[in-house]
Design a protein that fits this description.
This protein is of the alpha+beta class. It has three domains: 169 residues; 80 residues, Helix Hairpins (Orthogonal Bundle); 147 residues, Histidine kinase-like ATPase, C-terminal domain (Heat Shock Protein 90, 2-Layer Sandwich). The protein has eleven helices and twelve strands. A hairpin with a 2-residue loop joins β9 and β10.
């Protein structure tokens, strides 16, 4: 069986590892997103500056733009130059001038490539050194940010869009700006190493701390188990300390103390039962032995009365043993039940008739109020045993010239038996259903073994019924009720 410590470790450690991994990924990717956002902001700002640069910015600032250019020899040569040569020289000169204008203020770690719209050709910064920045799948007016790599392996963060950077361009050029992200990649690698190393160290530290904490926290349970192991039948009077127990296991300690109290009471009841049983069996056995010894020693003096006495005593012993066997079957739930529809009033009439003679001898009146409409599905044999034992107990212990009331279907009870019990006290109520328990004053005056109510209680439990006891104004009332009543 897995211990609590192992179960907690197998649950908390994986949970902590998963949380640490999730936290590490969250920190790493949020930091990466922050770094890339900074690069994107830097590229966007460079693009804004690039957009408002004009080629005229390199011209002489003192020159009047409205003044006509002087007619000199140079201009004359340009006017008389062939058209194809003139266009080629203008394109070369314009591209060089445009490149100088666009890329002069760019930092060394900034890469730029421009595909001109209506002029044709492209411009790129010198640090590209003949290489090209990987183009996105499509250019649009909305900027696109992406990661790429140069042919030499340098990682870049690129910005690409189509937008005008010169006033005279009819078709907006396609522009790619990029910055080196090796420093950011190196920072992310260091961050990942720190997170992995810190996570492993945190897991190891947490494991040790968890093991230590569990050992300290579960120590009261270990102490409780050691104390419980030392308990035996002779130490049932001892109790576990509730004040020193932690609040989490205090309910367990309370339940254990309650269990110890019940066990102590059960053992005391069993000891009383053993003593009572020995008393009940010793007297008739001693009488049988004495009668038999006398008959053996003086066989001529033996009379039928002696054998009749032996018969009565043996019958009493047989009744006691039969009651014990029946009680054992009821308490162990081995008795078979045959459930049929039963009318308690009819069974009560039969039980009353069985005890009518005894009641008449003792001048006891049996007052019955039986409701014939009451019925239930139960075992009639066990229900008859309950009624018989309750009526027999009432007739046996009721003084002469008194009344025993027997009710069926009255006062929310299936069956109720009430009789005078002047000798009983409130503290005796808890002992009425104990096996062989009787008041001392009645022990020697009764032929009963003191197990009638115990058998009735066991039968009621077997039928899922409830026996309740009340002592009202010196009268004992025992009611048989359903569990939900």
């Amino acid at each position: 069986m897995i211990s609590i410590r192992a179960r907690l470790l197998s649950t908390l450690l994986p949970a902590f590892v998963c949380i640490s991994i999730a936290a590490g990924f969250s920190i790493y990717f949020s930091t990466k997103a922050e770094y890339l956002a900074r690069l994107d902001t830097e590229l966007a700002n460079i693009a804004i500056d690039l957009r408002f640069i004009k080629p005229e910015a390199n011209r002489d600032p003192n020159r009047d733009p409205n003044r006509e250019a002087p007619r000199n020899q140079s201009n004359f040569r340009i006017r008389n130059m062939p058209q194809e040569r003139l266009n080629s020289s203008r394109l070369v000169g314009g591209m060089a001038q445009l490149k100088d204008t666009l890329f002069t203020n760019l930092s060394e770690n900034v890469y730029c490539e421009v595909w001109l719209g209506n002029r044709g050709g492209n411009l790129k910064t010198d640090n590209l050194a003949g290489g090209e920045i990987t183009r996105p799948d499509a250019f649009g007016n909305t900027a696109v940010f992406y990661n790429t790599t140069l042919e030499n392996g340098s990682p870049l963060r690129a910005w690409a869009a189509r937008f005008p950077i010169m006033m005279r361009e009819k078709q907006a050029p396609e522009v790619i700006l990029a910055v080196d992200r090796r420093e950011i990649d190196a920072a992310l690698v260091r961050l990942a190493r720190n997170l992995i190393g810190g996570g492993l160290a945190a897991c190891l530290l947490f494991s040790g701390l968890l093991i230590f904490t569990l050992r300290i926290s579960l120590r009261p349970l270990k102490i409780l188990g050691e104390q419980a192991a030392m308990m035996d039948a002779e130490s049932l009077h001892e109790r576990f300390s509730e004040q020193s127990a932690p609040a989490d296991i205090r309910p367990i300690v309370v339940r254990l103390n309650s269990l110890m109290a019940k066990l102590e009471e059960s053992f005391a009841r069993e000891r009383r039962f053993s003593g009572d049983l020995a008393h009940e069996l010793r007297t008739p056995l001693a009488a049988i032995r004495t009668t038999a010894e006398v008959a053996l020693k003086w066989p001529d003096q033996a009379s039928p009365d002696d054998f009749d006495e032996i018969h009565k005593l043996s019958s009493s012993l047989q009744q006691t043993l039969d009651s014990l066997l029946l009680l054992s079957r009821m308490e162990s739930s081995t008795a078979e039940q045959h459930i049929v529809t039963v009318h308690p009033a009819k069974l009560a009439e039969e039980c009353i008739a069985l005890h009518a003679g005894k009641a008449e001898e003792s001048r006891i009146q049996l007052h019955a109020e039986l409701n014939p409409s009451v019925s239930l599905d139960t075992d009639p044999r066990l229900l008859r045993i309950i009624m018989t034992n309750l009526i027999s107990n009432a007739v046996e212990y009721t003084a002469q010239n008194n009344t025993v009331k027997i009710l069926v279907g009255a006062e929310d009870a299936l069956f109720l038996c009430e009789n005078e019990a002047p000798d009983l006290q409130e503290e005796d109520i808890n002992h009425l259903f104990e096996r062989m328990w009787r008041k001392d004053t009645a022990r020697t005056e009764s032929n009963h073994a003191g197990m009638g109510l115990s058998i009735a209680k066991a039968c009621a439990n077997a039928l899922n019924l409830e026996l309740t006891v009340e002592l009202v104004n010196g009268r004992l009332r025992i009611a048989l009720k359903t569990q939900n009543t």
